[in-house]
Structures are given as structure tokens and as C-alpha cells.
Amino acid sequence: MTLTPIVEVVGLRKSYRGLRVLDGVDLSIEAGRILALLGPNGSGKTTTVGILSTLRRPDAGRVRVAGFDVVAQPDGVRSVISLTGQFTAVDELLTGRENLRMMARLHRLPGREIASRVADSLSRFGLTEAADRRAGSYSGGMRRRLDLAIGVLSKPRVLFLDEPTTGLDPHSRREVWRAVTELAAQGVAVLLTTQYLEEADQLADRVAVLNDGRIIAEGTPAELKRLVGADLVEVRYADGTLRRVPTDGTIPGLQAILADLAAQDARVTSVAVRPPSMDDVFLQLTGRPTAAAAREEVAA
Amino acid sequence: MTTAYVRRRPVSDSMVMVGRSVRHAWRNGDSLVLGVVLPVMILVLFTVVFGGALDTGGVDYVDYVVPGIILLCSGYGASTTAISVTKDMTEGIVDRFRTMTVTGSAVLFGHVAASLLRNLVSTALVVVTAVVLGFRPAAGPVEWLAVAGVVVLFVLAMSWLAAMVGLLTKTVDAAASMSFFMLFLPYASSAFVPIETMPGWLQPVARHQPVTPVIEAMRGWLSGGDVGGDGWVAVAWCVGILVAAVVGSALLWRRSTRD
């Protein structure tokens, strides 16, 4: 049986002051699935999430969420979604509990359920102990968790997460990942944007790679990585040039590459074996590195 | 096409937002200082320090200056409101409200209502302190009611103006500095010194700006006297500013939600 998608995006276009930000984006997500929208800064990720969550209007294309059209029935869309933006939207002067209680009232949860729902959310996101402290005193990870707790209080069917782990330490990042996986297991459809291939790999059922407003590749994380190959051997020469050699992931393959390198005359300053990164995917798909990677190489 | 799936509830949303903004007022150290400590300090400063040197034509200076202090304080309150609005607009929480079936503009009502409450507390403090310093108004209940009414109207007008400034500015610093012009108006009015003592070119400006009729009306009522046309001119100014600021805020709010 094939699942009907709960989020359907067809031919989405958006320009700002003549600058094309989205140039025909197609996406679909089924209930209980996680789609990662992977792309560098400026690729159109936040704009996409903004349109899907009714904050921005598309110039062209069709976007339906749970059967509601984002342009014609924005309130219908709003009744089934939740957005956790790039900047945490918690109220710093209120405590964690007060933040949740305020949102519960705005979501019109029945008065007698509010206290228990809020307490449940706090414990689920590991915030019970900090519940009565002001959110302004929370660490970055705690704020993100509160932000997520607020986001899922209304039991949304679709969750939009815009770079949910940017700026978090590895421990907090794993906590956010766990929370997102649990939500998907309960049937929530998740669209998350990320700059990290690793994050997409860990969380997503499918990954869509966005570059310059177009989806340039889509597939499971495994399919995507197969495009790039297995681990890479990164060789830095004495003259500063950098070379990446894809391996086939086997020891004999690696030995052959190293033997090749040893036979060369050029002076090598370092050799490293590493898994493919977001930049490698981009290099492979677009023929050019991401802007950040390009800067790094110039500096090196 | 059915729209039965959600019903917006602007009134209950506004109540939640008012609760939020009032909590903010209590917890935000700046707004507490601006709303409680500063009004008392300014009153003491004007009456005890400056008062002796100012000739207001036989009237005790404390009796003369109380209306001016009340309006000056509402200017300080306005800067707090403008900053709160800018913060909400730039820090992501309004975006969250907009993706919910919440009447987003309830955020503004919350800030304005909290501003009104803050200012009423400041006003009460100013009046009590003034009485301690020798303020003896001759107003009867009707006159007090009129004073309270015009203060509420003035504070509402200033608060909506501040909300508009908050929507207009993109940073908290800009919101703070833009709301300073509201602080300046009372100085160039009959609030602290009689207009006749000002340089000739300034007198018409001082006489025809909104603060002067409000001050004159309040002063008249507090001294138990007749305020003549000042009462209506004061109300007209306040209502005019209020309507302009509410319409301006609504337009700016719509602009900021578009695209």
C-alpha cells in the first residue's frame, strides 16, 4: 500500500525583488516520515519552510498540507502544523512552564488538561527540573528543547524544523535527534532543514538536496551517499593543493590508493581518510564546492 | 469552502497576551525602574531641587508640576512598550504565533494593556508622593474622574504610538531612540514652566502642541477651576493620535505579515 503524502509541493517558485530564491521545487512527505532538506546557506531552505508554514506567500506552484492549500486555507494548514524556526521562539522572561502554559491556552487546550499536558511535555523533553526557571537562563540546548516542546504541545500532524541543531553542542544535538525520531514514530510528518549531511543521514528517511532554489537530488541517505562514494582520501601537498580521492570502502582499495600516492614524486604534507561531507555531495552534484568550502580552500 | 475547522478567538488570545505582557512588566528590571523609581525621583527632583527657582505665578510648584510629571512618565513607559514590540517582532515569537490559529495582533493589545497598567501604577505613585510633598488638589470627584479619563486617553494614545514605533524599527536600539521624542514633548509645553517665560519663537509651538492642552485641562480640574475649551482640545488631540496610531499599527502589522 502506498501512503498518501500529507505534504505535497509542486512547482514552488518565489522571488524577492527580482532575485529568484525558489525555482520550481517539488517535495512530498508522508505521515511518520522525516524528510531532510539539505543545502548551504542561501539555497532557499528557510524560504521553503516559510511558505509551507504559511508565513510567506508563494509566487507560483501548489502547496497542500493535510489537504489544505497554504494560500487559500492558511488557517486550515495552521491547525495541523507546528514550526520551530531557526531562532528559538521562546519567551525569555517567562519560565519554561509558563511558556508552555501560554501556548497551551493559545492552542485552546481544555483548561483542566493544561497542567497535566504541560507537565508531560516538560518531562518528555527533560525540562522538569528547570521548569520554574526563566527560559532566559537556559542553555542553548535547553532552549531548543523547550522550543520543540512548545511546538508539539498541540499534537501537530506536520512539524517543520528549520535548522533545529545549528549552534548546539553534540550532546544537545543528539537529544534533539532523539526527540524528532520519537515524534516521527508517533506518526508526525517532519520536514527539517539542515546544512549537515550527518544530520540528514541520522534522521531522515529521505533527503532532498536544495541548491540555488532547485532540488538537485533526492533519495534515501544511502542513495545519496552512493552518489559520492564511500570514504575519501584527502591528500594535502607541500605546495598547498588539496586532492580528494574516493575509495570503494575496502581495505585493498585503500591500499591501492595509498600505493599510488607513494609512487608519486610530489611532497605530501598530510593524508587523511574521512567520510564524505556535505561539501563532497555538493562538489559531486554541482561541480563546485559550497561557498564556505571554497573560502576554506583559498585560505588553506 | 468550509472554514469550520478553526474559529479565531481574538478576545481570549488578547487576554493571554495581556497576562504575558504584565508578567514581563514585573520581571523586566528596566521597566520596573522606569515605571516605579523614576517617576518618584523626577517628581522629587522637580519640586525639591528645581521648584525653588521656578516662578509659576503664586501657585505652589508641586501643584503646578504634577500633571507634567504624570505625562513625562508616560513617555518613559512608551519607550518600554516600543522596545517590547520590536523584540517580539525580531526574535521569532511573532512568527510562531503566525503559524498558529492565533490572532497575531493580540500581541500588540497585550503590550498596550500592560503599558496602560504600568502607567496607572506610576501615576498613582506620583500622586501619593506629591501629596507627601505638599500637593493639595482642590478637585472634587467629578474633576478627579475627568483627570483620570484624560490620563488614560493620553497613555493609550502614547502606548499605541509606541507600538507603532516598535513595528517601524528593526532593532531594539532604534526603538529606544525613536521613542525619545515622546519624552521631549512635555518639556516644550506648559508642563514645567509657564509658556510666557519661553522665547517668543517657541511660544506658539509650545501652545499648540498636544501636551499643553492636556496639562492645562488637568491643572484646571485639579485646582477645582474651570478648564474652558482645554478639556475638549485635549480629548481631541488624544483621540486623534490614538486613531492615527492604531491605524498606522494595523497597516504596519499587515505589511510585516505580507511575504
TrEMBL record, chain A:
InterPro entries found in the cross-reference section: AAA+_ATPase (IPR003593), ABC_transporter-like_ATP-bd (IPR003439), ABC_transporter-like_CS (IPR017871), ABC_transporter_ATP-binding (IPR050763), P-loop_NTPase (IPR027417)
One cellular-component annotation, GO: plasma membrane
Endpoints of the signal sequence: none
Chief localisation class: membrane
GO biological process: response to antibiotic
A molecular-function term among this protein's GO annotations: ATP binding
Entry's localization field: Cell membrane
Entry membrane topology: Peripheral membrane protein
Keywords from the UniProt entry: Antibiotic resistance, ATP-binding, Cell membrane, Membrane, Nucleotide-binding, Translocase, Transport
Limits of the ABC transporter domain: 7-237
A Pfam family: ABC_tran
Record's keyword annotation contains Transferase: no
Designated name of the protein: ABC-2 type transport system ATP-binding protein
Species: Stackebrandtia albiflava
From TrEMBL, chain B:
Segments passing through the bilayer: 32-52, 64-85, 106-132, 144-168, 175-195, 231-253
ABC transmembrane type-2 domain ranges (all copies): 30-256
InterPro entries reported for this sequence: ABC2_TM, ABC2_TM_bact-type, ABC_2_transport, Nod_factor_ABC_transporter
Keywords noted in UniProt: Antibiotic resistance, Cell membrane, Membrane, Transmembrane, Transmembrane helix, Transport
Subcellular locations according to the entry: Cell membrane; Membrane
UniProt GO MF annotations: ABC-type transporter activity
GO CC terms: ATP-binding cassette (ABC) transporter complex
GO biological process: response to antibiotic
Superkingdom assignment: Bacteria
Annotated membrane topology: Multi-pass membrane protein
Similarity-based family: Belongs to the ABC-2 integral membrane protein family.
Entry protein name: Transport permease protein
The organism of origin for this protein: Stackebrandtia albiflava
Lineage, top ranks: Bacteria, Bacillati, Actinomycetota, Actinomycetes, Glycomycetales
